[in-house]
Design goal:
This protein is mainly beta. It contains one helix and nine strands, in the order βββββββαββ. It has one domain: Immunoglobulin-like (Sandwich). Helices cover about 5% and strands about 50% of the residues. The radius of gyration is 15 Å and the shape is globular.
Amino acid sequence: MAAAPYDITIEQGATWRTTLTVKDATGAAVDLTGYSARMQIRPSVESTTVLLELATGSGITITGPAGQIALVITATATTGINWTGAVYDLELTAPGGDVTRLLQGRVALSPEVTR
């Protein structure tokens, strides 16, 4: 399964939050009990610089039986963002160690006016 393309926009100074549900071919939620996930945002695919990173327990919460992955970047973290565009991907690791890249795409920043 190829990673689904999904571009995101982060509003500087605001909490960014999204929840996705992993489903199988029949549309049923996949039980993610025991899984972990991580997400990195970088200036470009080739860059060694990590601009922002989320992981299970640190910005990522997995609700196993429901197949849900919740992603959160705090308002404090988004306030400190000083880049204008980047790329990201989100990987899911199964209990046995298999890694699946779920999402990938571009990250845009909407600058904060009210400070």
